[in-house]
Design brief:
mainly alpha
Length: 279
Amino acid sequence: MERRSKGFYVLAAFFTLFLIFLYGPTLTIGILSFQGPQGGLTFPMNGVSVHWFKDLFQEQAVGDIWGAFRRSFALGLMVMVTTVVVSVMAGLAFRKRFAGSAVLFYLAITSLVIPSILISLGVGLIFNQLGFKIHWATSGFGAQLTWTLPFGLLIMFAVFNRFDKSYEEAARDQGATAWQTLRHVVLPIIAPSLIGVALFGFTLSYDEFARTLLTAGSYNTLPLEIFGMTTNVTTPVIYALGTLTTAFSLVIIGVFLLVAWVMNRRRTRLGSDAGKGGI
């Protein structure tokens, strides 16, 4: 049996500590959310129950949890769709060099290195100066796109850099128009990447705090609502909310992965059927 080196055990210990640091707080919140009715915000637990989850669905003395959730969900969908559409269009446009393409590319991704709070402040100031109302669906939407679009663009650029143009040439040889080639050839091939961009767009928006802080207006998104609750809620109900939102995020990720798996299996089956047909 091969003996492990000391370096292996050091790396294993470091990785274990990293996992504890990464997931420990989430697991702790999950456990404390099942405190009994008389439980507090810390250990030891005072009984075990789902009391605080039930309390979430009652009228709260402070805040608007479910209104904030609906706003975050709607905003996430808006950002997701916009990110996917713009990223695909930009990816297609950047397949050919044009004047100023490099400058435009760097301008598009510069927002990734600018502090998020400055983006939020800048967008809020612009809306104020132009006389527009600051609202989560307008200024908040625009501020979040400065965060999600660069990721979408980078993914699409990488995808199209590896894309085999012979598929498009074959489609055109068969008489397909540019739109038919895009719809029936290009999009099905890059579909798994589109799902990745959509997942990035939704989850980054759903979780965004800093870029929404000064651009949401009078109505909080869920991250802002949770932050506000930390200053005035002294019961495990906030842990229950954190556990539910984490579970919701995992469900969303699972749905996207399931869709990607189904699409991949369908594409594999179609390819296999086409191969058999050609024999």
